[in-house]
Amino acid sequence: MRRLLLSIAAATAAVTSACATRDAAPAAPAPAPAARRFVPADRTAITAVLDAQVAAWNRGDLAAYMDGYARTDDLIFTSGGKVRRGWQTTFDQYRKRYAQDPAAMGKLVFEIDRIDPVGADAAIVLGAWILTGSPHDGRGIFSLVLERRPEGWRIVHDHTSLATP
Fold first, then answer.
1. DSSP 13-56
2. What confidence tens digit (pLDDT) does each residue in 82-93 have?
3. Are 75 and 156 in contact (CB under 8 A)?
4. Which pTM does this prediction carry?
5. CATH number 2.60.40.10 is the correct assignment for the domain at 40-162
6. DSSP state of 86
């Protein structure tokens, strides 16, 4: 008899619990993670990357200048009618052209025309460059693609051209 009473009590508890669960309001879904957006701080961070490049260039520090680029074999650098692929190839080309005499690198100025977000984690920068006080003086335009990476915003694609005189 005791076993029968325990079975009836267990069955009653199970039915009552099932009914209560069925009648209860459904639990609210967990909130979705906030979507990342391109915000004014991203524009500031991108500008800081480019400012750091100019400062490094103007003190003759090519290694620090290259910190603005993503250290990847997927980096694309287009200039002078040539396409170079990879961070190391780009760095080697800069060293070949400018590292013989860091004092002769001259003074570099970037003039940023615009920074346009491409989604939350990329941006295109359009600007002009001016190099003076160097055997390679010149001016031209550039378009850069920067990507948000674990180490911060970095250039992954650089198309730089020389203005015609």
1. HHHHHHHHHHHSPPPPPPPPPPPP---HHHHHHHHHHHHHHHHH
2. 999 999 999 999
3. yes
4. 0.78
5. no
6. S
